[in-house]
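Summary for the steering committee. The consortium agreed at its last meeting that each partner would contribute one worked example illustrating the joint modelling workflow. Our contribution is presented below. We chose a case with several input lines so that the handling of multiple components could be demonstrated. No manual editing was applied between input and output; the record is shown as generated.
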Amino acid sequence: MVAIPKESWSGKINEITIGATDNEGGTRDRTVRLGGEASLPFLAFEGKVSRPAIGMEVIDRVGEDYPQIIIDEIGDIIKDPVAWADACVNLYGADFICLKLLSTNPEEANVSAEDAASLVSTVLGQVKAPLVIQGSGDYEKDARVMELCGDAAKGERCLLARAEQDSYKSIAVAATANGHAVVAFSNIDVNIAKQLNIMLTEFGVPLDHIVSDPLMAGIGFGMEYAYSAMERIKLAGLVGDKMLQSPMIADISVAWSAKEAYRADAKLGDERDRGIFWEVASALAALMAGANALIFRHPKSVAIVRKVVDELVG
Amino acid sequence: MPMTALDIFKLLPKKNCGECGVPTCLAFAMMLANKQAELTKCPYVSPEAVQQLESSASPPMRTVNVGDVEIGGETELFRHEKKFFNQTAYTFIIEDDLDDQSVVERARKLDAMKYERIGIISGVDLIAVKATGDAQRFSDVVTLVNDNSGLPLVLMSNDPKVVEAGLKIVSKAKPLIYAASANNCASMANLAQRYACPLVLYADDVDELVSLSEIAKSEGIEDIVLDLNLGAKPLGHALEWLTILRRLSVKKLFRPLGYPVMVNLDNGTDVETQAIRAVIGTLKYASLIIFSDLDAARLYPLTTLRTNIFTDPQALIQVNPGLYDIGKPNRNSPVIVTSNFSLTYFTVASDIEASKVPARLLVVDTEGLSVMTAFAADKFTPEKIAQALKESKVAEKVDHKKLIIPGMIAMLKMKLEELTGWEVIVGVKDSSALPKYLKELASG
Ligand code: B12
Ligand code: SF4
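What follows is the complete predicted structure of the assembly.
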């Protein structure tokens, strides 16, 4: 008999719940749990595995460079973030929504923080799945946007994105003041991921309120860097580094930033199938590297990856 | 664990006779430890020592050649620990019950299913000819496929006679024999031995696979590929076993399984399922995958993922900085700046080509970083661009002083104009918009 080589991990990934139901002081009709595993992805023979959560992006105002293929698939409701979010949950089966408030960016439409917060309230009122709220990436504006959105979503245990090395304080305050969790964003760098968790906890954000985003890159566009960074973070967490045991979130919608994913080109096959598979392959890479939550763009990718996850988790 | 020179020395005869080509046993031991010598050079080592030394001197996973395609030879579980060496070989099936015309067409089509991306050509690597009937038909189809494609072959049949009919035609090109199982192991091993070709060992159970491996080894067969029927197992199971097999070979140095592992997806599943399993197999430890079929819309992303995962994490793939002509530029052609990360260079160069506007591409030394990354890392500075501009002597080649920079680094414009005296034009953000942009620019 061949002896099966098992690793005995001393560490375990933190388990974090997003969303709060009635009896938890929120209004969600479900929660999602991220992490909690004590093994490398899907290796059930070794230890507890966890089921990754599947989310979808909803953008407050879709920009001009948004892929037409997605617009065609989702239809006119893409202009209405509330209807779009509703479809993601009730039609496409997303576990959670990632609402991206890109139009708050001062260099784009510069929508006010107040308007952003009222959108958050409406979405929360109409759509009952847990919510990730993401700013535009403009540090100063995000500080205000997160403050108001965090207030508007009080009690709902949302995930606020994203805290960075140079801008984590305002978002940390917006989160802790209202019981939300934060996404700690660290640009494909294990040391920064760790550093950021240390800074956040020192600042008062409990570890069980932090989800790491080591930055996903789609296939062909730096995936290998993201893959190895995530794999290293997961391994470090499993061998017991407390500051690298946060569950990881990966935004797979970046797969669509590679134009070759869906540019019409007969030699490369049907561009719709190709685009979807580009996103699916990027998602599977994230899963194999240890991602605990994924954010998708194409509804069909969601359906495909959900099936794969079912097969993997059993 | 590989043995140290001292460990090896302890096992040598200590005669210091010099017949191995170096003066002392210790010197020979050092060469062995560094893999600079073959143990067979010493005529006096005891058989026990040979066995001990061989098992530690040989790599954890054997590298196997199928034709000119190398598979296996892996030493790691995670690419960041060093790198993955030989990319997963993608193998497509041709069944011998197709008519001749279709065989020829399919062979040619598979041969042409390759894509050039960032200077790397990637696609179908092997063709598996699958027997459905008699030896004569198999050998005819092997001939046809061989004549119509340059890809190395896998010969698929459970019947040693059928396989031999194929071997007679192509054994020189070292096809992979698929497969020896408990029923036919002796005769398949015999074929592999006589024709000096690599052999797949197939078993549904790991202990049985180990026995097969021991039998093959005792027959003197070294070039082995393992098939644990993972293509047919539930996905989670397959992933677990791929991991277990890789750990057994590279961490436990378990010799009977120290060979590349393959996954056969030719089991009636649709292309999407095959593509998904292939993604997971490519990321996690399959050295060879057999597909019944796959369309370009899935093979192209799959090969892209494969290239990613098998790149060396220690080396940024870059192109030489300098001035590149795209098309046949004249003295009025635009001068365009980009970084020397190979992905960036090839993307931008192909987008310029697509515009049909000849241009000069000034590739700045950003140490292999993309435009945005280099900018964030302070490696795409106005000073650097100005210097590259000067060194390229492009001023002597054009009659204008206009420089187009990536839209992402618009903020460098003023400083760059100051440093160079050139007019700096901020281009589009994504180079995929360059064709339109350059055409409009050219027509004024
Ligand atoms: C992979 C990656 C890395 C890899 C490096 C890979 C490499 N060889 O460059 C690693 C992990 C090393 C890395 C490191 C860092 N990175 Co990085 N990285 C990425 C990632 C995921 C992909 C980059 C990529 O390959 N892009 C593809 C290439 C083709 O893009 P490109 O070169 O920009 O070219 C496009 C355009 O610029 C344009 N274009 C190019 N040339 C031209 C020319 C003309 C004339 C025109 C018109 C257009 C044009 O067309 C191209 C596309 O078609 C991006 C995020 C993302 N999705 O983009 C972040 C990103 C670029 N990184 C970023 C950062 C901050 C960093 C770090 C500074 C992080 C840190 N704190 O350490 C470090 C710095 C590196 C260092 N110190 O060594 C930021 C940059 C933020 C900013 N706005 O400045 C990004 C955007 C991530 C983010 N959202 O925060 N990174
Ligand atoms: S041939 Fe063998 S015994 Fe002679 S010196 Fe070399 S290693 Fe020693």
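The interface with chain B takes residues 1-2, 4-5, 40, 42-45, 65, 219-224, 227-228, 231-232, 235, 259-261, 263, 267-271, 273-274, 277-278, 280-281, 284-285, 288, 304, 308, 311-314 of chain A (CB under 8 Å). Chain A has a mean pLDDT of 97.
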